[in-house]
Design a protein that fits this description.
globular; 6-stranded mixed β-sheet; alpha/beta; single chain; 3 domains
């Protein structure tokens, strides 16, 4: 039976695969804290996923393909939007993915981790009827005790996922609650579409640096626009010229490195 990439997205999004003893194809221990947010726009398939590979916790993008060789076939190797992918999830691993800078993207193969009947159930749910809600004909078969337990469980799971994300970020920030709050606040400014670049912007511009310039609005604006990657060219108008002049000085002063502006949508 031929799987579709949409099915693989479904499996990853809801983590419907065997997660016991999870490893990358090169044998590194792997743990998935969050599958991330499903991206329906251009770019990697999932944003802001949180995983652990070996002893390192990663947060970033995840790309999915039926075969790992699809990465090259789809032209991702030379596309900067895919340069910060932290995990390549595939049904079948048939080719390593190595970026132009020499970094090999960790790969998770799901071929032997998906229940044989899952695709049939998925297909029946998605394509088997044309009701407003695909499962509405089946929901009456669920008893009240099971329904109550399920609602309680997904509430707890949602809180646990949020807690795990905060705990992981707090560990990376070495117990700095203010910096952790600042990063989560920034990510929420981007909603679903721009959550990742906002979070990356906050990480590239620690709030302690912003605080040093809190009485100078122009410098604050210059650092934010500059770190977002919007001051890379030669501006024409007076206001952006002032921003760039300030940013060029502050970038050298604080050793700042801007994020890629192609991340913004």
């Amino acid at each position: 039976m031929l799987f579709t990439e949409d099915f693989l997205h479904y499996v990853w999004k809801f983590r419907l695969f065997d997660r016991i003893g999870l490893q990358t194809v090169d044998g590194q221990e792997l743990e998935v804290f969050s599958a991330g947010m499903h991206n329906k726009d251009s770019g990697p398939d999932f944003h802001n996923a949180r995983i652990r590979i070996g002893e390192t916790v990663w947060a970033g993008n995840v790309e999915l393909h039926l075969s790992s060789s699809n990465w090259h076939q789809h032209g991702h190797t030379d596309d900067n939007a895919y340069g910060n992918v932290i995990l390549h999830v595939v049904y079948r691993d048939d080719s390593p993915v190595i970026l132009p800078n020499g970094r090999r993207i960790p790969t998770l193969e799901l071929q032997n981790r998906i229940a044989p009947d899952l695709y049939n159930r998925y297909h029946a749910l998605i394509f088997g009827n044309r009701q407003f809600i695909p499962c509405e004909a089946s929901i009456a078969q669920v008893d009240s005790l099971t329904m109550g337990n399920w609602l309680s469980r997904i509430l707890i799971e949602r809180l646990e996922k949020r807690s795990e994300a905060v705990t992981a970020a707090l560990a990376i920030n070495r117990g700095d609650w203010e910096e952790t709050f600042y990063q989560f606040l920034a990510a929420n400014f981007g909603f679903k579409t721009n959550a990742l670049p906002f979070e990356m912007l906050a990480k590239s511009l620690p709030q302690i640096i912003l605080a040093k310039h809190k009485n100078n609005a122009l410098q604050i604006e210059a650092m934010i626009f500059g770190q977002a990657g919007f001051l890379n060219g030669e501006p024409v108008d007076e206001y952006p010229r002032k921003l760039k002049t300030e940013y060029d000085f502050l970038r050298k002063k604080h050793g700042l490195q801007p994020i890629d502006n192609h991340l913004w949508k």
